[in-house]
């Protein structure tokens, strides 16, 4: 469950909103020369956001629009967490795929992001998008339940793979399960 806290500096009141979730869409930035990690994206997700002159927030207590600060986080994790990498964008002329290689762990520790939860999850499946923004093909690598054996699914073909093969710059959707 997500939480969003908006703090009004005028009346010093906090407004907290809870929102159940099972998936998280992560915008992928174009990055050619440095390594980007899933944790980097999660850290940017929870950074404090200042609601300034161009984006004032209406405080129900003050009955006016005010500059405020907004923070987001995870209250507690659900049994499964689906992370979707937003790899496609449209520049007004044509669609394109962002091929930034995002590093993601086999075991994801969300303790620093979770308010009331241990937040440990293990990677159980990765869906890959092969191709470009105009056409492509989806394949999948999944961990066999109860084991550490991984399999690669490509249409009707199923092959055993090493766990390392579940990591690719073509990752589009990650599925984690709470430990």
From TrEMBL:
Enzyme Commission number(s) of this protein: 3.4.19.12
Gene Ontology terms, MF aspect: cysteine-type deubiquitinase activity
GO biological process annotation, one example: proteolysis
Matching Pfam families: UCH
InterPro entries registered for this protein in UniProt: Papain-like_cys_pep_sf (IPR038765), Peptidase_C19_UCH (IPR001394), Ub_carboxyl-term_hydrolase (IPR050185), USP (IPR028889)
Name of protein: ubiquitinyl hydrolase 1
UniProt keyword list: Hydrolase, Protease, Thiol protease, Ubl conjugation pathway
Catalytic activity as recorded in UniProt: Thiol-dependent hydrolysis of ester, thioester, amide, peptide and isopeptide bonds formed by the C-terminal Gly of ubiquitin (a 76-residue protein attached to proteins as an intracellular targeting signal)
Protein family according to the UniProt entry: Belongs to the peptidase C19 family.
Domain USP: from-to ranges: 1-179
Keyword Heme: no
Enzyme class: hydrolase
Organism from which the protein derives: Trichomonas vaginalis (strain ATCC PRA-98 / G3)
């Amino acid at each position: 469950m997500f939480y969003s806290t908006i703090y009004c500096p005028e009346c010093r009141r906090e407004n907290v909103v809870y929102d159940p979730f099972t998936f998280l869409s992560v915008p992928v930035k174009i990055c050619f020369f440095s390594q980007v990690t899933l944790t980097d994206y999660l850290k940017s997700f929870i950074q404090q956001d200042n609601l300034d002159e161009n984006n004032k927030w209406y405080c129900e207590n003050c009955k006016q629009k005010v500059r405020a600060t907004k923070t987001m986080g995870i209250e507690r994790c659900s049994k499964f967490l689906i992370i979707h990498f937003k790899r496609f964008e449209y520049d007004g002329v044509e669609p394109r795929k962002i091929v930034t290689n995002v590093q993601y762990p086999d075991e994801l520790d969300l303790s620093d992001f979770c308010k009331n939860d241990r937040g440990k999850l293990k990677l159980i499946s990765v869906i890959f998008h092969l191709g470009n923004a105009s056409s492509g093909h989806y394949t999948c690598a999944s961990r066999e339940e109860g084991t550490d054996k991984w399999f690669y699914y490509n249409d009707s073909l199923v092959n055993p793979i090493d766990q390392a093969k579940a990591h690719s710059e073509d990752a589009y959707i990650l599925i984690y399960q709470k430990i």
